Amino acid sequence: MSIDKNSGRMLIRIGGEAGQGLETVGEMLAKALIRSGYEVLATQNAMSRIREGHNYFSILTGTEPILGPEEEVDLLVAFTQETVDLHKDVLSEQGMVLIGPDMEDQGLRSVLSVPYSDLAEDKIMANVAALGVISAMIGLNQELVSGVVQDALGSKHHDLLPKNLQALDNGIQWSGRQSIDFQPLPEGAASQSRLAINGNEAIALGALAGGVNFCSFYPMTPATSVALNLISQADELGVVCEQAEDEISVINMALGASFCGARSLVPTSGGGFALMGEGISLAGMTETPIVIVLAQRPGPATGLPTQTEQGDMELALASGHGEFPRAVMAPGNAEECFHLTIKALDLAERYQTPVILLTDQYLASSIRAVQRFDLSSINIPQAPTAQSDELESYQRFAWSENGVSPRLIPGAGTHLVVADSDEHTPDGHITEDHQVREGMVDKRLKKLEGLVQEIIPPAYTGDDDPQLLLMTWGSSQGAVLEAAAALRHQGQSVATLVFSQVWPLDPGNFEGYLYKAESVISVEGNATGQLAKLIRRETGFQVHEQVLRYDGLPLTATQILRQLQS
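-> structure tokens emitted (566 positions)
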């Protein structure tokens, strides 16, 4: 069982060593395709090395919507022999390989040797020459591709731009002189203004739209670029970004800023998040709003630092000692990264509690073509009040019906704000009174009732009483939706249930779907089926089967279908 190859789709893979400019040429090609009216899903696979090591950049493109990655390669652009050796077995029936003149073709059916040294004045520009060859082969407009190169390299390497443009033109002209048996892309859609954006960029934009004005971080793949994107806009939009010495400092710095009225965001990955556990618990006790972007990668420990996995859901659910409310979001595409970041900031502010945004390396770095975000409907969370009319009676942790106490900014007026990491009375002073302790725990947990009312229900699509229900969460949604579409095309009754928020849960939003389906299969990018275990814990429902991937690569529709057949 496999995906029917859509004639309008093409998977281009560019492989070589770190330092050969694979990401640069891949991003330029992706942007050129988007500007030409094509749909794009660009992903990268990199070893955790600065030089050498095999890396590759894949661009899935076509005229129809693209939800998830594919496996069969139509055009393999190899800058090293290792690229040919590693990827020759995933070539499609009509697949072609571009190699350098000093490389072996391994007896492959369709190979084109490209004289990069003749096309590029300097070997570091071989990637731009390759871009010219590729763009000519797939039918892109030369002037449009040239514009992309100027935009990408003009400001950074202005002195080298003429040589790069010459290498591009040489590649295009050389390709035009060859007799190449390769089917170009069908004509793209009418030109439209769209964004070429990855998940981390969308999160940063969502944070800015949601009013973030403080970000503390310690660099950790794959979360770092969230902070770097905020830094790029910091001066213009008034965002304070601080790189601290470690993740313990990061979380406490962000909590201090939030306590003083800032809207704080912390991007990190699993190892850094683990160090933040005590700080997250502190946020729960002091009822301080904080949003943490947890960009997952394979663990334990350092694991595979540049690969992907969905292994940290349970960590997010249980982080921080003691019992206190939280919300955990799990976006599945760039649009959800943008909108759920705003939602997370809103919930954190209004319920004065930690909110965790679960993403991963695949989603963080995948480039997609998306429509410009509509900012007109965004409600920026209300900032805490600076003054109180009842200064003497103000209590930071006052009892309330919904568990949320009035939050004032310390030092912004004559009122006194008292907070304590120990258990405390409503006015913020330490206490060991057992009745007060019980009341404070109940008050904090009362917020869960409000959070439940604001749950984003899982998205259900498909037949009402399906034979098969595929359940998933976060970044695996695209592969699941495409697998379901393929099964329906083959005549099967299939539905999907996709969670973009994994905590809190309201079984009333989805439990009925589980019992209506003949077979429920959980599809996840981890080894233990963490969503399936959570659903069983909350509802008692046991999924019938699981499709799991934990080798460091994202799920694909083809792999899901392969496992369902086995």
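Residues 9-192 form a domain with the Pyruvate-ferredoxin Oxidoreductase; domain 3 fold (CATH 3.40.920.10).
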